[in-house]
Fold Probable ribosomal RNA small subunit methyltransferase A.
Amino acid sequence: MLSETLKILKQNGIKLDKRKGQNYLVNRDILSKIIQNSELSKNDRVLEIGAGIGTLTIPLAKNAGKVYAVEQDGKAANVLKKRLEKLELDNVEVIVEDATKMDLPSVNKVISNLPYQISSPITFKILENPFEMAVLMYQKEFAQRMVASPGDRNYSRLSVMMYLYSEAEILFQVSENDFFPKPKVASAVIKMQPKIDVDIDPFFVDVTRAMFQHKKKKIRNALIDSYHEIGDVEKSDLKTIISQLDQTKMNERVFKMSPEDLLKISGDIKKLV
């Protein structure tokens, strides 16, 4: 795959920019594992974000009914269109846009080697739209944060939100050597399946953001230090509210709290605001 990728890039005068997340997968075994875990059929409508020159797009098109391939780089998108035309694959719609700013098409699966610099915003955008399953590649460290448990070093606000929104698991890791150009970090492929009828209170999102800005501090101190993240609550008012809550919980470290604990704390604060 490496020689094929280099040939296509050279023929089309494309120079990849690692700063834009342009690291193309060049290991056919990894590509096959992504397709296998995607469990595709001709009934599937698939969204791919960061399609590039079509390394993943083409096998997706061969196995799914419809593919929406989003690629912000117009030059790479034109190469992809030419490759699809040559292979007579007419079930792909190439969309030249920034995936974080567009309305996502209606699909049942999202399969992508994501540009790592948009990992967080695009993940939450995907979760806000209906889908059945996603198989996504991330930077390894980011993937570990997605599935971390309370008390783990990688436990974060992202871990909490992922737990509430979906069932997620790391399927396998991917070496730096499986890409061109070679990135400085390892990667991992995650499978996500959304939980049904999830409705997250925006107030909870604010409270959680406030707490995890200081995740190693006691909850009371983390909240007070980031009071400005919680709506129009004044610092003095928040101190009064905290004094009325369960003091055992208020003295716990943020990173040790389960998502359920954090939901309870947020709900108690909201009642007193």
User: Anything to note?
Assistant: The domain at 2-194 is CATH 3.40.50.150 (Rossmann fold). Residues 148 and 155 are 5 Å apart (CA to CA). The chain has two domains: 2-194, 202-272.
